[in-house]
Amino acid sequence: MLLLNVVRMARLVTPVMQRQGSGAFVNISTFSAFEPDRMFPVSSSLRAALAGFCKMFSDQYAADGIRMNNLLPGFMDNYPESPDIVKKIPLGRYASVKEVAKTARFLVGPDSAYITGQNVRADGGVTRSV
What we know:
This protein is 43% helix and 14% strand. The chain is built from 4 helices and 3 strands. It has a single domain, classed as NAD(P)-binding Rossmann-like Domain (Rossmann fold, 3-Layer(aba) Sandwich). The mean pLDDT is 90. A 3-stranded parallel β-sheet has the order 1-2-3, with helices on both faces. By secondary structure, the chain is of the alpha/beta class.
């Protein structure tokens, strides 16, 4: 389900983007796609599959001006805050939903026109060692 919704959307929208000569997808994933966490056991395997799809899609459609990237947020202020979790975040706080939304906006905008097939982490440094 976490992967197929992206695949189905891409199948529907890609032809439209091809006709217009450009387009950008941003898939919202999670930091635990590459840093497994017992709190989110399903995320690790299915979100890693999303990363693979993103790279394959980007390889196939970049020449058509179509980009796809994954945004991997960490803990945000829409999740119950825990002092134990905050200790694990180098920036020492949860992200605001607004901060992560601005990153998504950047990834679909013209300032990121040369970025495709990437997994962009916005996690306060949690996965810095991966």
